[in-house]
Design goal:
The protein has 270 residues and is α/β, with parallel strands linked by helices. It is 26% helix and 21% strand. The protein has a single domain, classed as L-arginine/glycine Amidinotransferase, Chain A. The protein is built from 8 helices and 15 strands. The strands form 5 sheets. Strands 2-1-15 form a 3-stranded mixed sheet, covered by helices on one side. It is globular. The N and C termini lie close together (6 Å). The model has no long low-confidence stretch (mean pLDDT 97). The structure holds arginine (ARG).
Length: 270
């Protein structure tokens, strides 16, 4: 498994583009953040992952560390994001460069159309190749059709997000490699919830509680049977263990101040 990550040397919370950030402006500790990022990277590597690491960039792009938002990588193609928020829009240039360097064919249709789409923050692949695409906060509904046209053969379901604290799909939905998923039903509109309940009902879905959701339990990364997140409740550890996964907590408190956690800090490249 290969991931794109970005060194957090210029990470900070110095603007507010999601509800987690406002109370934390100026409060992320850069030294602690760097240590937490190093620990996550180290654990991913020990679980068997390979990392492509982007070097950090000047202080005016503090969210560049959240590489999940760079693009949706599908096969050899990387569909580059056009950020909904002006604060993050300049990031596409750096992500495009990093993805080309990593050997991907970079598709810029969202950037050219100025059509909000935030990559693997909102577009997640299921076992079998289908896609779930979160929309409503950062990704436009129109982007769902554009992606579907670009990737014929991959069934895609739009999932309308309605809770501003869970503004990206990867904050409230985490597909696992056995075909199950962790998810927070209350983050979705009734229609989207019904659609996901059909696919991820009691047999295949692990619904998280509000407290677990607020710890970003759904913002998890799986490598070789280990599932990494900021914090795990005993309940979720047991439910994951019953499916053969080992839940591992890795403190990401400083990134949570920006509204991101383990999954946001990584972009799966294969
Ligand atoms: N501060 C960043 C933003 O609001 C956090 C991004 C988190 N990324 C993610 N894939 N959920 O855009």
């Amino acid at each position: 498994m290969r991931f794109l990550m970005c060194e957090p040397r210029h990470f900070a919370v110095n603007y507010e583009i999601n509800p987690w950030m406002g109370p934390n402006i100026g409060r992320a500790d850069p030294v602690v953040a760097h240590a937490q990022w190093d620990a996550l990277a180290d654990q991913l590597v020990r679980a068997g992952a390979t990392l492509d690491v982007m070097t950090s960039q000047p202080p005016d792009l503090p969210d560049l560390v959240f590489t999940a938002n760079a693009a949706a990588v599908i096969g050899r193609r990387a569909f580059l994001s056009w950020f909904a928020k002006p604060e993050r829009q300049p990031e596409h240039v750096l992500y495009g460069g990093a993805l080309r360097k990593a050997g991907f064919e970079v598709d810029t249709r969202f950037v050219e159309a100025r059509l909000p789409f935030e990559g693997a923050g909102d577009a997640l692949q299921l076992l079998g190749g289908g896609l779930v695409i979160g929309w409503g906060f950062r990704t436009d509904l129109a982007a769902v059709d554009v992606l579907v046209d670009a990737v014929p053969g991959a069934p895609a379901v739009p999932a309308h997000l309605c809770n501003p604290h869970f503004y990206h799909l990867d904050t409230c939905f985490c597909p696992l490699p056995d075909g199950s998923a962790l998810w927070y039903p209350e983050a979705f509109t009734p229609d989207a919830r019904a659609m996901l309940t059909e696919q991820f009902g009691p047999s295949r879905g692990i619904a998280v509680t509000v407290d677990e959701a607020n710890e970003f339990a759904c913002n998890a990364v799986e490598v070789g049977g280990r599932v990494f997140a900021h914090r795990w409740s005993g309940r979720l550890r047991r439910l994951l263990a019953a499916r053969g996964f080992e839940a591992i907590a890795t403190d990401l408190s400083e990134f949570m101040r920006a509204g991101g956690s383990a999954k946001c800090l990584t972009l799966r490249l294969d």
